[in-house]
Each structure stands twice: as C-alpha cells, then as structure tokens.
Amino acid sequence: MGCCRPWYVSSKDQSGTICENCGEVWEPSVDLVLSGHAHYYERNATIANFNVDPNELINPTAPWYITNGAAGHYDGLDSLVRPLQSYSRYTQEPAYGWSKLTFHNCSHLTHEFVASRNGTVLDTATLFKDRKCKH
C-alpha cells in the first residue's frame, strides 16, 4: 500500500507532514507501507501503535514502514533528528536514491534502496510472512 505522508519518521515535522493518525487506517490490514514526502530514506522495523513487533521481519503481525523521498527536491534532502527513533533500522540522508521491490513468492519480499548516482544498493532487507502460496 502506498501513501504520500509518513507517520513513523526520524525527521523534524517542520511543515506538518507527519500523519500519525494514518496508522489507524492501515495497521490492521497491510504488510508494507511505502511513503515519500520526507526527503530522505528511512527503513523502520515492523511497528503498530508505536510498538515494534518483536518478530521484526520474520512473520510480523505489524506493517513494515519504509519512507523514501530521496529521489530529489529543489532544496536538497531533509535532515534526520538524532538520536534516531527506536523503531528506525536504517537511514540514508546524504544519498539520492530509489526503491526496488522484489516479490520472490507469496511469502518473501525484498526491498532495496539503490543510489541514483551509480546504482549501488545501499540497503537491503527481506520481509517473510508465513503464507501458503497458491500454484
């Protein structure tokens, strides 16, 4: 499920872009939430109601949140606030890049953050959900 405004982020909310109430709509029913709008890359843990799922990416019950607004902006990339939020797992603020999703089958999904400047994969992680694949 894609959305434009992130709600679990480690950046300043200077322009009113964070949508904390959005989670109430998506968290009961989705596995992955991709958002942009914040101009940097951040991969978070699986999380619901600000609580990290202890299973992380291995059969979680909460959605996996990835914010990638690092494709570019006329003012440059946004800054992260340190220390990062406890649910943050990887960030990349100085690099422009894009997301690549690979659906291996019905139970495995890999996300990669790829640098625009040279195609280098700067971050990769795989989500596993225990499902029976239909043939």
Automatic annotation (TrEMBL):
Protein's recorded name: Purple acid phosphatase C-terminal domain-containing protein
Top-rank lineage group of the source organism: Eukaryota
Organism of derivation: Neosartorya fischeri (strain ATCC 1020 / DSM 3700 / CBS 544.65 / FGSC A1164 / JCM 1740 / NRRL 181 / WB 181) (Aspergillus fischerianus)
Signal sequence residues: none
Entry-linked Pfam families: Metallophos_C
Residues annotated as domain Purple acid phosphatase C-terminal: 62-124
SUPFAM superfamilies: Metallo-dependent phosphatases
InterPro entries reported in the protein's UniProt record: Metallo-depent_PP-like (IPR029052), PAPs_C (IPR025733)
